[in-house]
Amino acid sequence: MDWMPLVLAAEEAESRGFSLNLNLLETNIINIAIVFGLLIFLARGYFGRVLGERKSEIENGIREVENRGRQAEQELATARQNLSQAQVQAQQILASARTNAERVRAQVLDQAQIDIARVRETVDQDLRNEQQRILTQVRLKVVGDALARLRERLPGELDEATQRRLLDRSIQLLD
What we know:
Elements: H1 4-16, H2 24-27, H3 29-153, H4 160-174
């Protein structure tokens, strides 16, 4: 390449000062336009395809996110419904447990009252039996003591009729 014309042109420009070169061929505007035109013409298909693929990926991503959002909303609604059902069921279980507890409490109290009455009756019966036994022992002791004193005091003085009267009276006292 010959640099000489460029050097001469630069020297001439320096001698004239600063100026605007309006020669289109010298300024390479046409060359740049041709390069850009070819670049656009050749790269348009490639960039169109790349941008189309990118647009398609973005649209698919948006659809997928929207689907996930709808699915999450459905799962949330299902979870809320399940929670509501669980709360209702828990309330029913608590109410049932309270009812059962009250019923069992009433049964236990009733059974306790029955048991207390039965124990009292048994204690009263045992007390009456013990009183009767003690009373019988006391009567026997009194009769035995009375007979012993009579035997000491009246040896040979009692006839058979008097002994019979004493025995009958002693038997009446026992009843």
